[in-house]
Write a structure and sequence with these properties.
Layout lengths: L1 H32 L5 H17 L8 H15 L7 H23 L15
């Protein structure tokens, strides 16, 4: 019985992470592709995305980059009730999304420490 509870927990966590990713992706594409950005449209977009996010049960996230994603989404939501103008919101969100991608990529690609030494036996 304990194994099935763990499976359900993992699937709920995965569902929550995917919902966070969808939320972030939809807002980033809106911010980058929209011609007429306004604070009102941004707030409306957040509300619509929140409806979808609220459908999924919030789960505990342990992995660092996913915690960063969760913090990024919370930051996007926090801007909904702020008085900040849309250009600074866009700048800040795109910057932090870029930092998130950079940290993800840094873990994915590892630079060879002694790259020149691996070719010595060829000479």
């Amino acid at each position: 019985m304990a194994a099935s509870k763990k499976v359900v927990e993992n699937s709920n966590r995965l569902r929550y992470v995917r919902a966070l990713q969808r939320f972030q992706k939809s807002l980033l594409s809106y911010l980058t592709n929209s011609d007429a950005l306004t604070k009102e449209k941004y707030d409306k977009k957040i509300e619509n995305a929140l409806k979808l996010l609220k459908r999924v049960e919030e789960s505990q996230i342990y992995k660092g980059e996913l915690q960063d994603l969760q913090a990024h989404v919370n930051k996007m939501i926090a801007y909904k009730n702020s008085q900040t103008d849309i250009e600074s919101i866009k700048e800040d969100i795109l910057y932090s999304a870029n930092q998130l991608e950079k940290s993800k990529n840094a873990k994915r690609y590892k630079k060879d420490k002694h790259s020149h030494s691996k070719f010595q036996d060829w000479e």
